[in-house]
Amino acid sequence: MNLNSQTYSSNRKTKIFNNPERFTEGWYWVIPSQNLRVGEVKPVTILGRELVIYRGKDKRLVTFDAYCPHMGAHLAEGKVEGNALRCFFHHWKFDAEGMCVDIPCLDTPPSLKLQTWPTAEKYGMIWVWTGEIPQQPLPFVPELEDKECDVAIHSHFVMNCHPNVVMINAIDAQHLNAVHKLPIEIIFERQELNENAVIFSNIIPIKDNSFFIKLIRIFYKNAITYSVCYWYGSIGIVTLGPDFFHVHTMFAVRLHEGGKAEGQILLITKKRKGFFGWLCNRIVLWLTKIAGKFFLMGDIQVVQTIQFDLKTPIKADHSIMQFINHVEKQQSLMWGTWQEGRSRDVENKPKRERWQDKMSND
C-alpha cells in the first residue's frame, strides 16, 4: 500500500479532541492582567463555569465560584476588603482561601469554605488551573523558560470550531504548503516536554527558491527554525526564524459555548536591557505581529466554516494524528461542571482504542 497516495477510513471516536463537551485539565487564560487592578473584583465565565476573580491589597489574585453559599448572591457585586471579599447582599466575608471569616449578625461564623481555583499571572495574562492542585507549570516558550520577557497582547477572537481544530493548523503540512506557500518540505519531529506539553519541530532545511531566503543565506547558512509547542491541547506557541532571531507567537485558546474557540494572541520576546533594548523589542514584536498575520491569512474563513472530521488521514497528516493521540491521553473534564469526564467508550470497554501515531496497512 502506497501511503503517499492511499487513504483509509477511521471510525475511532475521540473523548476530548474536538468534543464540545470536554476539555483537558490545565491552565487557561482568564483576562489580561492589566484589566484587574488592586481592590477590584470581576465576574468571569470560563469553560462554562461562572467564577469571580479579585486582586487583594497584597496584589494576590483569588478566584472563587461565583455565588455566595448563603442565598446565591453573585460575589462580583461585593467589595474587596484588604485581601478578602465581602458579599454585597448580607456582608458575609471570605478570605483568600475561601473561608468565611465574618458574618455581621454572628459572633462566630459557621465553618464553610468557597470553592477556590489556583490562579497565577504570566505573559501579561491571568490564568486559572481547572483542578484542585496544578500538575504542570504555566505555559511557557521553551527557549525562554525562566527568562524575563516583553509581551504584547495582539488580539482577541472567537472562531466557529473547537480549540483543538484551531491548534492543528500550525502543524498541518499540507495546509502550510498549499495556503501559505512556505518554501519548506515540512517533516515534523515530535518531542514530549511533559505529559501535558509536546513540541513539533520541522527538521527539513528551507529551500533556496525565493529572493528573501537567498538574501538570508548570504548571512546565515543553517536551517531556519519552525516549531510549535502545545500545552493542554489548546495553547500553541509558534517559534520561527534563524537561530540569531526567533519570533514567538502564542495562541491561547479555550473552549467557548457551542463548541467554539475563544482565544488571545500574545507576541513574546526576551527582555533586552536599556533604551536600545526596549526599542529593539518594539521592532521584534512588530515583526512578530507581521509573521502572525501571515499565518492567519486565509485561515480565518476556513476555521469559521469547517466541520472537522478526519475520515481519510494520509501520510502527510502524521503530525496531526500524533497531536490527537497526545490530547487523548490527558485528563478529561466536563464542560460547565469541571468534573472528570467519562465517555461511554471508557465505561463499556476495558481498553479504549487510541489514535495511532503511525500509519498502518490494516
Automatic annotation (TrEMBL):
Residue intervals of the Rieske domain: 27-128
Short name of any one Pfam family annotated for the protein: Rieske
CDD domains named in the record: Rieske_RO_Alpha_N
Name of the molecule in the record: Rieske domain-containing protein
Superkingdom field: Bacteria
InterPro entries cross-referenced by the UniProt entry: Cholesterol_7-desaturase, Rieske_2Fe-2S, Rieske_2Fe-2S_sf
Entry keyword annotation includes Oxidoreductase: yes
UniProt keywords, alphabetically: 2Fe-2S, Iron, Iron-sulfur, Metal-binding, Oxidoreductase
